[in-house]
Amino acid sequence: MTRVAYFCLLGRGGMVHYSSQFVNAARLQVDVLVLLPSYVDRAKYFDVAERDVVRVAAPPTITGTLLSCLAFWKHISAIRRLRAFKPDVIHVMDVHPFYGLYLRFLPGRVVFTQHDPVLHKGEQRSLKDRVTGMMNRWLARRADARIVHGKALEGDGGKVVVVPHGDYAFFRRWAKPGVKREKHTILFFGRIIEYKGLDLLIRAAELAAKNIPGLKVIIAGEGEFNQYKALIKTPALFEIHNGYIPEEEVPQYFQRCSAVVLPYKDGSQSGVVPVAYAFSRPVIVTPVGAIHEVVDDGKTGLIAEKTPEAIARAIENLLRDDKRAVRMGKEAYAKMERTMGWTMIAKKVVREAYGTKKG
Description:
Mean pLDDT: 92
Largest sheet: 7 strands, parallel
Number of helices: 13
Order of helices and strands: EHEHEHHEHEHEEEHEHEHEHEEHHH
């Protein structure tokens, strides 16, 4: 059986969700060893035993990462453990500066899941962002095969395997029975950062509220929100939860809303769409990156141009007919089950990416 070492050193938020769900499906087809940061609760995410895990101190900050480098003997120990596993494939699931060191000492075909081929607006300013950008480009060049989440992200050159972003139905385990769907409530969920277009949504909501009585916009996510406050003309329209949303609290926001809006100005793909689908909620997205590739316009959601006016029309279109919104939510859930299953995705990656090393 093929032996695969999975590198998963980003242990917080969407990256650990994605990595764990993929590994949990792939382990049924290949022998696995998982490189994890010391702070991750393995049992919460991964269906592998601790004996199949290599731990390394990889704090989620630049300062912590630099301090971790001082304990070089621990990295040497981790590399020795990985070499002893004799991987046929090293599958890099995210981007971390340690991978530059580890890959220089390890044999095997390298497969890189490249979630974002380029950094987005607002993600190129800090030292951490610049390091991430450099490692992202280096890993793309180093890899024998890349995994991307849409045809629009294929790029040029090299072996590329296109798979959808897998489903996030595991969030349903934390759903609360008493939380009810609110007819005219829409949700913006995730990090608040420039490229996600929250300003477009705020302006769109102010327009749509004129035709949708009782409209409410829930904004839930961490990030700098102060810059958007001046755009809000009607405070009663908005319910704001500005901060990190613990996993156990995520479901209530999707349970309450009637639709999820992703008014992105640019982007590659998003885990928010499969979460919405998991809770039978249609989405409104803009045609950026590959996000709209997983939306059947008029069936599982609506695709709107990235202007306040177009997004407002989509909100009105979706919320004006509640029966249609519910029907679209059911279509969204069915699409998730039909096309976003992790077993199907893992099988395709094993079949098409874990092949012969280049060169």
